[in-house]
Amino acid sequence: MRYLSALRAALSLVLLFSAANALAGPKPCFIFVHGMNVSDDTYVDYNKARNYWVKNAHDGVAYATQNFAASFYVVGYDGTKPYWEALAAGEVANEIANAVSGGPDGGGNSCAKTYDEGGEFWVIAHSMGGTIMDYILGNNDPSDPNYNFNGPYDVVAEAVTRVITLGGAHRGSEIADYSCGFGGSRYCKGLTSLFPTCNSGDTSATWWLRTADDVQVRTYASAPAKDIYLIGGYEAGFQASICLSGEDDGLVNYTSQFACDGDATASIKHATVCDSNNKQEISGFFNLDTAHENHLDQRNGSDIDDRRPIPDGYVWMCDGAPCEIGKPTGTKMGTMQFISTLY
Questions:
Q1: What is the Cα–Cα distance from 37 to 94, expressed in whole angstroms?
Q2: pLDDT per position as a tens digit, 278-290
Q3: What's the pTM?
Q4: Would you kindly state where each structural domain of the chain is located, as residue ranges?
Q5: Closest by alpha carbon to 247, among 287, 306, 258?
């Protein structure tokens, strides 16, 4: 029999996601932050922001909230802008501040409790949404390089309980490099449907999602004020995978998804994912696990497939013992369904 368990303190991880206590406390409010977009439609149209998390009959918001047993708030921002821009990080920070104070999202959904009432808030961030949360939570203090740059970052950092990123573009993507004319074959440079092409120095999300240090979020932010938990995907189903290093979800490689230090284009496999001591910042990033999902399906729960444990991450149990790192657990579950087991 295969079943879920959390790491004990003896295994050096903080016990935050204990299966034994999964339903013991009040349910958190989930705040959903989408990723990059090819237009500003998720900013101007709430339904576009909400449908970002849906694929056919599969609704990632419904899965994560245990069929809406937990309250939720869907953020909409301009996904064409750089992660640090007012209509990106600034808008996300303002919307999260609204959510934790009890305000409604564009569809009228609001958190069951405010921060002042003792509410707990989990941010679920996909793709560039992870980069945005890195920036906000790394600039919440006057000592940070871009303190409260264009929004109430300090309010967000105080109120948010934790962040879970799905396929987070923490270190950018080589596809963005190629789309902006840096390296890659003619084929790789032609993947404009995934990352729109950009010009040198322009103010686009694509330019600021390159793997070069001059655009990396860690260059412009400190360690996050609240813990960020990392879930990755490794279904290299997109044609773009031949243009990426190591394991990837078809758009973002493991180095980026797991916020690893060092070369952003390093080739990392399941068993060699960086641990908590080798992240892009000195603290604040923790591994959960990885799943056989592509970059798009991570956000909607449509792919019920194998999950794998990774170093220093969530413990999956196989026949009474921790499953082997990097090997399939035998338990098939989408990421949004997995999140629903964590509270």
A1: 19
A2: 999 999 999 999 9
A3: 0.93
A4: 28-173+203-308
A5: 258
